[in-house]
Structures are given as C-alpha cells and as structure tokens.
Amino acid sequence: MTRKRVLSGIQPTHDSFHLGNYLGAVKQWVELQKEHDAFYCVVDLHALTVETDPALLRKRTLVSAAQLIALGVDPDKCTLFLQSHIAEHNQLGWIMECLTGFGEASRMTQFKDKSQKSGSDRTVVGLFTYPMLQAADILLYQADLVPVGEDQRQHIELTRDLAGRFNSRYGATFQIPEAYIMKAGAKINDLQDPTSKMSKSAASMQGVIEIMDSPEINAKKIKSSMTDTGREVRFDEKEKPGISNLLTIHSSLSGRSISELENEFEGKGYGDFKSAVAEVVVDYLAPIRTRTLELLADESALVEILRVGAAKARVVASETLVKTYKNLGIVT
Ligand code: TRP
After folding, report:
1. How far apart are CA 199 and CA 7, in angstroms?
2. In Å, how far are 97, 167, 328 from 101, measured between CA atoms?
3. 240 is catalytic
4. Distance between CA atoms of 35 and 2, rounded to whole angstroms?
5. Taking the model in full, what pTM does it have?
6. Distance CA 205, CA 192 (A)
7. Superfamily in which the 213-290 domain is placed by CATH
8. CATH 1.10.240.10: which residues of the chain?
9. What pLDDT score was predicted for residue 120?
10. CA dist list (Å): 100 to 132, 153, 158, 221, 274
11. CA distance 102 to 274
12. How large is the average pLDDT for residues 143-159?
C-alpha cells in the first residue's frame, strides 16, 4: 500500500510566480501531495546557469519557497526543500554526466534554444549539463512520477534513458520515472497578447499577472487587457482569444464553469465582465501574497522549514547514492 513517489522542481529565477505558473504547475503539486509521497524542491543550483546577483538569488530562493507554501504546498504533507541543501544532487549529477553521450546531450532542444540565443561564448557548460543534474534530482528520490510542463518532456525522456542504461549496466538501482505532463486544462495566455502563453519572457509585463504584485496593479492589468471586437462574452479561442482567456482565468479561480459565466454575462459588456474577472483574481491572490510576505518576514522560521525538509530528503537521497556507488564499484 505504498504511495507513489512524486518529484518536481521549480527554478528561483524570478521575483514572483505568475498566474500561469500557479494554474499550470503549482496547483497540481498541491493536488498531488494529497495522495502521493511528494518531494518538491526549489532548484537553486539550476538557477546558477544564468548569472545572478547573489543578493537577488538569495531573495528569489526564499520568495519561491514562501510562495509555494502560501499557495498550498504543505511542508507537513510533502517534503519541501532546497536542491543545494542536498549535496547528493551534485554527486549523482556527475555520475549522470559520465553516462550521457555528448551527442545525446547536444540534442536537448532547451539547450539548443538557450545557447543559440546567447551565443557560445556566453553559454556556460552548466547549461549543457543541466539535464543531467535534473536527472539526478529525479533519480535520487526513486520518483515514479514527475509533474512537469510539456517543455520538459525531453529531459524526462533523457532521465528515463539514463536510468535504464545504468540499471542494465550495473544492476537494478533506479526507478524508471514517468513524466506526468500537467493538463493543459488551464492554459493561461498573456493579457496583451492572448494567443501566446503567459510567460515571464513576454516583451512586456503588462500581460502577466504576478502573484507578488499589489492587488491594484493586478486589477489594472486585467481591466486594460486586450479584448476582441464585438461585445459578447463568449468562449471562442479563434474569434475571441482575449475574452476566452479571461473566461479561463475566471473559471480556474472561481471554480465556475465557462458556460455558467457566459450566461451570467449575457447582454452585459466587456467592461462589467473585466471588473468581475479583476475581482476574482484579486480576491484569490491577495491572501496568498499576504501569506508570502508573512513567511518572508520571519526568515529564520522559513529557513528552518526548509532545513527540516532537507533532513527528510537526505535520508532518501543518501540511501540511493550509497547504492549507486556500490553498484559502480566505488569503494564505500
Ligand atoms: N528544468 C525544470 C524547469 O525548468 C526544473 C527542474 C529541475 C525540474 N529539476 C527538476 C523539474 C526535476 C522536474 C524535476 O521547469
């Protein structure tokens, strides 16, 4: 009757999560912790692949952990920790690097995209070995399921290949994990460019709802969101991408169905509808922001929560590493 093991990670690369992160990822983490043995980590070592001011990295790491807790990731129900607190990630990462072909790593599309954007002199080697560290994150905990977005599918495939390769060369050591691709159910788009995904890489932040923004700013962003011609509040992604996106946002946060909302706003204009969406978003996010700020106000208590999580994580990680070393013939 053992519960399935889940592991996922999120990078502390921003000052705030946005609504797309929450509805796409964190909300599922919260669901999964109920019936699974879940391990969630803030992958601060992965964030080092982009040069960041130390004070900013520290701040972003803490704000990420605090937001996860405020959003419902419960340190009593799951194991919440910082990747850097467990040295075994680096140790197993090296083993994974020694198992990965150069060509195989060169085929990772995320590496290709990111390195193309910055040019080879500015691309660090850590970006190339990033997927092997990610494989270590997963395999150390013998995870069955890895909840991730579609963009991470290839990294999970690599992780599965590496686990299988290791097991067949050196004997059964790792659980072969499966990607749990998070349902695109709540696909949230940019408020100003409603045919593109809500993302921090957007040209302007006007279309991105950030959890740590003030309620006033978020209400304003919704009210000035781009809408479509016509004035009917109706879900039609092709003809009305702006209104459809707002309907999705309302429905995901209020739990009411799209058709119920269409009925409620029948005969009313876009203005009324936008005000209602703004209210739902603000009512939902304001307490989460307040809770995050409270957690950040007592930094030592927050760090203590993460240390307790790390102590739980270390038990599993060290057991896997010892087994890995033994099977490799490393004298332990
Ligand atoms: N690469 C993932 C992302 O950018 C983050 C990540 C690092 C991760 N390690 C992980 C996700 C382990 C799942 C499991 O989203």
Report:
1. 23
2. 8, 16, 18
3. no
4. 10
5. 0.94
6. 9
7. Tyrosyl-Transfer RNA Synthetase (1.10.240.10)
8. 213-290
9. 82
10. 8, 17, 9, 45, 50
11. 51
12. 95
pLDDT mean over 231-239: 93
CA of 42 to the centre of ligand 1 (A): 9
- Whether ligand 1 lies within 6 angstroms of the CB of 7 is answered as yes
In the chain, the amino acid numbered 161 is D
**pLDDT tens readout for residues 21-38:** 898 899 999 999 999 999
DSSP E strands, 67-160: 79-82, 145-148
The predicted model gives 112-137 an average pLDDT of 93
pLDDT at res. 1: 64
Higher pLDDT, 149 or 245: 245
| Intervals of CATH 3.40.50.620 along the chain | 3-184+298-326
59 burial type by CB count under 10 A (0-12 exposed, 13-18 middle, 19+ buried):
middle
**Which class is 3-184+298-326 in CATH?**
alpha beta
Q: Is 13 in the pocket of ligand 1 (CB under 6 A)?
A: no
**CB 139 near ligand 1, within 6 Å:** no
pLDDT (0 to 100) of residue 150: 87
Query: pLDDT, tens digit, for every residue of 181-206?
Result: 876 556 899 999 999 999 888 889 99
Q: Counting atoms of ligand 1 from 1, which one is nearest the CA of 10?
A: 5
Distance of CA 8 from the midpoint of ligand 1 (Å): 6
Query: How much is the average pLDDT of 134-141?
Result: 98
